[in-house]
Amino acid sequence: MLFVSYYITKIIVQGTPCTPDDPMSAESMDVQDKSWTPTKKTSVMKFLEKGSDVPSVISKALIQTILEQHALPWYSMHGISHWARVFENGCQLAQLTGAKIEVVQLFAVFHDSKCEHDARDFKHGQHGADYAATLRGTLFNLSDEDFDLLYTACAHHTDSLTQGDITVQTCWDADRLDLGRVGIRPNPNYLCTNAAKEADMISWANQRAIENFIPKWVHKKWGYSKKAAQKKRFLNGRGASRHAFPRRAWERGIN
């Protein structure tokens, strides 16, 4: 058990630690993430308690189209409950980092949209990015510049990276803050932005992940319910657990 605990601790968190030699090391990221610098007068927890009332770009038509083609059960490690928490994590972070909120929100629903197995689908990020390209212009709109950010964030979210545009970094942090769903507490050394590294932010997101928290708005705004999931056969099979992940999956930083 000690070996397992040590092993998981070593590989828990997505990403690679930055070093002063990196072109976007911790020092350079501090410059990018200018919008959030903790002070005695600020409190992440107070900010989080206020909630986020940022308008959503995710329409019911878009989410329903994605869900109809999603292979995993709603309660899986890469299912809609995870997407919703990543959505909220991202909205909170974007207000602090200055990331492009539309990109962050779309990342939440596309990054795992083509995941077909909770443990062994190493290319699902790339497939999700390609899928987003097929729906662009019909179910959502983004400029070429913003779509490039979305594509990059989705395609590389399992590649253990910490470098990139602040919007891409915010997307990755929103996802990594939900590692608690597989029994892992996010390590700030492997997060990208100052806002995500805050202890209160990690604790807030981690507790929700552990509880498999599903925001109430999911039922209304995304038109989603367990009954609808059953009708679409999203409840066939068992829910995934962290014990279902083989060692190789942990090593690859699946998220």
Automatic annotation (TrEMBL):
Superkingdom to which the source organism belongs: Bacteria
Name recorded for this polypeptide: HD domain-containing protein
Species, as recorded: Candidatus Thiomargarita nelsonii
